[in-house]
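Appendix B. Chain record.
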Amino acid sequence: MNIVLMGPPGAGKGTQADVMARNLFVPHISTGDIFRANIKAGTELGQLANQYISKGDLVPDEVTLAMIKDRLAEDDCAKGFILDGLPRTIGQADALEAILAEQGKQLDKVVNIDVPEELLIARLCGRRVCRNCSQTYHLENNPPTEPGRCDECGGELYQRADDSEETIKNRLEVYRAQSEPLIAYYEQKGLLLSVNGNQTINNVLVDIGKGLGQSW
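Structure tokens predicted for this chain:
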């Protein structure tokens, strides 16, 4: 099953994608994770991407799409994938469709997680990430046992630059302007499945499963 997972920053796409991938036995492909790995390694791509990500802006399409094309061609995507973080614009959606057609594939469903903006800001401002293993915590909803330290590896927890309130608001503005039109785009193609993201993680997962004909 080939799935695109979309929604505003902080909607919980990564959390849902991880569980879905395990249940469907397909890879979770996150553009954000790929970018952050390159930033941490100091690669040319990472330095370029960081110029945009740190301000809450989108990474240029040519960089993102070339990376995604190569990733989707890998063997572990033969039986499907969950793509998280792309497309974010109508242009990217058209390009993704062309990439998939070239590889003899097509999307089965686009899952949109809908969450109110005020909740998104609260979620993202409280997020902390381990510098060592990238485990994610939340100061209120999922705090570490020891403040500032990762439960998994003991690494230092930090707030990503793109999780500051000012940057979050900019990211949401960018999302509204460039990504929200994708909802109508995929609805017209008969691919859209919208779920309420303002509920427990498990309930969101159950709603997604119902829409995909899955019971997990």
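Further analysis of this model is presented in Appendix C.
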